[in-house]
Amino acid sequence: MKRLTAIIALAAAAAACSSPKTGDVPVYLDPARSVEERVADALPRLTTEEKVALTHAQSKFSSRGVPRLGIPEVWCTDGPHGIRPEVLWDEWDQAGWTNDSCTAFPALSCLAATWDRDMALLFGRSIGQEARYRKKDILLGPGVNICRTPLNGRNFEYMGEDPFLAGQMVVPYVTGVQENGVAACVKHFAVNNQEVRRTATSSNLDDRTLYEIYLPAFEAAVRKGGAWAIMGSYNLYNGQFNCHNKRLLLDILKGEWGFDGVVVSDWGGCRDDDEAIVNGLDMEFGTWTNGLTGAASDGYGNYHLANPYLQRLADGRATTKELDDKATRVLRTIFRTSMASEPHFGSFNSPEHYAAARKIAAAGTVLLQNNGVLPLRVPDGGKLVVIGENAVKKMVVGGGSSSLKTNYEIAPLEALQEAFPGANVVWERGYVGDTSTSYNKVDTGQDLSESRSASQLLADALKAVEGADAVVFIGGLNKSEGQDNEGTDRSDTILPYGQGEVIEAIAAAVPSLVVVNISGSPVSMPWAPKVGAIVQGWYGGSETGHALADVLTGAVNPSGKLPFTLPAALSDGPLKTERQYPGIREEGKEWWQEYYDEGVFVGYRWYDTKGIPVCFPFGHGLSYTTFEYAAEKLSKAAAACSGSYPVASDALDKVVASVSLSVKNTGSVDGAEVVQLYVAPPAGGVERPAKELRGFEKVFVEAGKAASVSIDVPVRAFTRFDEASHSWVVDPGEWKVLVGSSSADIRWEGTINVK
Ligand code: BGC
Q1: Taking the alpha carbons of 602, 604, 606, 607 in that order, is the dihedral positive or negative?
Q2: Is 78 close to ligand 1, i.e. is its CB under 6 Å away?
Q3: Cβ of 267 less than 6 Å from ligand 1
Q4: For ligand 1, atom 11: residue with the closest CA
Q5: Atom 12 of ligand 1: nearest residue by CA position
Q6: Which residues contact 712 (CB under 8 A, 6 or more apart)?
Q7: Ligand 1, residues 404, 486, 488: which to mutate, most atoms within 8 A of Cβ?
Q8: Does the bond joining 190 to the residue before it have cis omega, within 30 degrees of 0?
Q9: Which of 99, 311, 326, 350 is most buried when burial is the number of CB atoms within 10 A of its CB?
Q10: Strand pairing partners for 386?
Q11: Is the CB–ligand 1 distance for residue 79 below 6 Å?
């Protein structure tokens, strides 16, 4: 009893010291104070060493915080499709935890294909909740690099070829993540459009191209989405590494856009002691323990922003000005996340998250072609033949840093078996693609080994389709090297592993063949006219099979639209020379050089303007119903539209016109349509793309009913970036406003006279 009293007394004394009376709580610990007040109070309490410790890693994914002051570590995680499994302190391999299997959400290319801002918000919220539950402060994603070449190994982690679409989708994603007290770290800033030699190539381009194509999605994430973190990319821009690129980080991001968050290096992307200090990098994370080449004792002390920084501060080569700015930004991040005034707890693997993953994956699925074969009809007792490796291959594992460990992943075949319980669902492999099943010691547990020859596989497939009620080929790319994979690019747009021949052979026997292409990048489909239906599926995450089956069976009416062009052939695209891609060596220059000679003519901007036919155009996607556009009206605020030249930046978002229309569902099933608005420039003057996406709305319409849609057109829609005046300018003349169901299916046209 005596002992207990003593303990209580001790506890009371401790409480008296540690829990100050009202007014005694240091401001930085007071949740009632604003983030800025807390930062201002915390900063002067820090020693130089403590400030420097904030700016570099202490492990693969964390930095130190200030333990003396109770300021916690900062924990990062990949991103962007789910929460990465815990890795070892100094290694990429998973740590072997048993409670870190996440919900795997669809790849961002799928999210972009939903063309649905609500889906992006749902995605952001759900993944943000998972991150918070796992006590992560910075989610390394989303990625918004533009699909400049279909070959880029990381297209699947990005949001397509159009800056407006990517910009519209990234904002709600960021909002949703950050609602949970988790910083979205938008990556990879900037002009990081290939994986080949990604750490040794300088992307060289003019300002017009930079501002019109490659920056808008980042700008939207920062200015409209209020992103709290940005990741610098591995490559160089105009000769300087992007993790400490003065122009990108200081002049544009922190200068023009007023970014007040934290700039994080890509892992190992920081390359220079001095530039790292002065050019706007705030936190350095590394690929190896010493951040440079390999493991070393006191590895993290060797980071550019560690001991070399301290030495420079000590001998006067560096000033505290930059250090205080970096520390301020890291503290701000901490007060916004782990020490946020409002506590967030998050949730992990909830039924809601799986439901969200399924909903998004289905909403992004694109029906490219349908000669009436879909939705699938297989009678009870009937035979459904499924051919192709991607019908069974689990693909949440693989692809690089976005690889995940998930509790559950249903492949398409299993989901189709579930969907047609009364049918005989037969699977044949058809071809062998990638038999690997693991990444960083996470294994799907599948055995994908195969001993049959290619011709035997085809013969077996052809045998299997005999007497079938329906045949579905499920193939495409995968996440192994040279496919949709970090660190490598593809070599062509045609399907690998001889799938084209397999498809043609089966289609010759079964003209109603349904082909499902699963990929995260554009694929050419020369066999398209020979098959009955084509579906663009994606890496759908945990619920990939269910989502695909939902669309194939008609449980969900497809409403996705392509976020990039599917070219007829790689050689049709805008990148014609090695100078453009993958880069060349030039005398006297240390790094590979790449020139964006195609300028703003990327994706449909290229194909449309040059009149080059494509396999399936940007924005294309069918439904099981049909939509009629009617009673369109273009209201013009002509006075506001008469425009100044150049346009003041605060006037860019001023609405100068608005298009109202009614969309009628003329079929027999409910469905959703994405109404797209493009503008086409007047003839003459500076060369501009034939048309550019400037607005869209996704609208759900019940069968037989109509819904009204209205799309605003801001001043920005008519601008181009003028290098000489470094501003957005409007070209006067008669502009066309085009409204349609894809970039190639324009249903209505109006004009606006810009004076
Ligand atoms: C990737 C980043 C990723 C980081 C951490 C890098 O290799 O480029 O996207 O967030 O690794 O895993």
Answers
A1: positive
A2: yes
A3: yes
A4: 267
A5: 401
A6: 655, 657, 658, 695
A7: 486
A8: yes
A9: 326
A10: 427, 472
A11: yes
The predicted structure's pLDDT at residue 314? 98
Q: How many CB atoms lie within 10 A of CB 461?
A: 23
Fold entry, domain 625-754: Immunoglobulin-like (2.60.40)
Looking at the domain that runs over 46-61+70-89+99-336, which CATH code has it been given?
Answer: 3.20.20.300
User: 80 CB less than 6 Å from ligand 1?
Assistant: no
Q: Which residue's alpha carbon is nearest to atom 8 within ligand 1?
A: 266
For the segment 459-513, what is each residue's pLDDT rounded down to a tens digit? Answer: 999 999 999 999 999 999 999 999 999 999 999 999 999 999 999 999 999 999 9
User: Measured in angstroms, how far is the CA atom of residue 697 from the centroid of ligand 1?
Assistant: 33
195 close to ligand 1 (CB < 6 Angstrom): no
Paired residues of 427 in beta bridges: 386
Q: What is the CATH number of domain 365-556?
A: 3.40.50.1700
Q: How far is the CA of 484 from the centre of ligand 1 (A)?
A: 15
CATH 3.20.20.300 domain span(s) along the chain: 46-61+70-89+99-336
Burial letters 121-147, b for 16+ CB under 10 A, else e: bbbbbbbbbbbbbbebbbbbbbbbbbb
Tell me how far the alpha carbon of residue 401 lies from the centroid of ligand 1, in angstroms: 5
Catalytic entry in 266, 273, 434, 484: 266
Q: From CA 7, how far away is CA 17, in angstroms rounded?
A: 15
Percent of the chain with pLDDT over 90: 89
The answer, yes or no, to whether any atom of ligand 1 lies below 6 A from the CB of 187, is yes
Q: Where in the chain is the domain with CATH 3.40.50.1700?
A: 365-556
Q: Where in the sequence of the chain do the CATH 2.60.40.10 domains occur?
A: 625-754
**Catalytic residue list contains 266:** yes
- DSSP β-ladder status, 229-232 and 262-264: parallel
Tokens of 498: 């001889």
pLDDT digits (tens, 9 = 90+) for 412-463: 999 999 999 999 999 999 999 999 999 999 999 999 999 999 999 999 999 9
Please give the distance, rounded to the nearest whole angstrom, from the Cα atom of residue 402 to the centre of ligand 1: 8
Query: Could you report the per-residue pLDDT of 331-383, keeping only the tens digit for each?
Result: 999 999 999 999 999 999 999 999 999 999 999 999 999 999 999 999 999 99
| Best residue among 75, 76, 108, 140 to mutate for probing ligand 1, ranked by most atoms within 8 Å of CB | 140
Q: What is the mean pLDDT of residues 194-215?
A: 98
